[in-house]
Amino acid sequence: MKPADLFRFLRRVASQNLGLKVVALALAVAGWWFVAGESKVLVSFTVPLEIRNVPKGLTVTNKPELEVEVRLSGASSLLSGMRPSELSAGVDLTAAHAGRQFFTLDDRAVKVPPGIKVQRIYPSSIEVILDRTERRTIAVTARIGGGAAVRKRVAKVEIDPPSVEVEALPEEFARMPVVYTEEVSPNRTEGDYSAIARVETREPHAKIVGNPNVRVQIQFRK
Length: 222
Known about the structure:
Layout: H1 3-16, H2 21-37, E1 40-52, E2 58-60, E3 67-75, H3 76-80, E4 88-92, E5 99-104, E6 110-111, E7 117-122, E8 125-132, E9 134-144, H4 148-152, E10 154-160, E11 163-168, H5 170-173, E12 178-184, E13 192-200, E14 207-208, E15 213-220
Parallel strand pairs: 1-4, 9-12
Antiparallel strand pairs: 1-3, 2-8, 3-7, 4-6, 5-8, 9-11, 10-15, 11-14, 12-13, 13-15
Helix pairs in contact: 1-2
């Protein structure tokens, strides 16, 4: 059994039976001595960098690094048995403000399993630019698919709700007089046709506030 697996097993046993805590402690000490006696190694990993907790009313407008290189040290058995899900990196923007700012990446930005230490992170800091967003109500227009023959048969299109709330940069609203649904392709051209469609935004920082789905009701010519 690898040391990492041993530690996990001991934690589970100790939490289920208080009477085994003393035995678990003794085994843990033995396991620690085993790990301590191993040779320490340095290993580098490329880890996705997550931008977390962007403050309300702000959006990231530059392109921060998507990955960081993390150099870790520890017993070879711990590092060889480490799963990718046990390693993560992130920057918390809870206290950030509008404008350009730099965030230091230290060992607190990287989550690693017990017994493993973060020796280096590259880059050691990232630049983040935050700009203020606005919210406006914008009308929705349906995209009707199926070709020209189908569109010629359309007599009326109703959308419920007829508008949605959009959050975006102020300058993006000038390029967004309306927002469109995903393409709706009727499977008939007589009577009425109804479908649920998702409203899409093509501006890079625009997003729908709340439910992005609307009902599209199409009436065909008689």
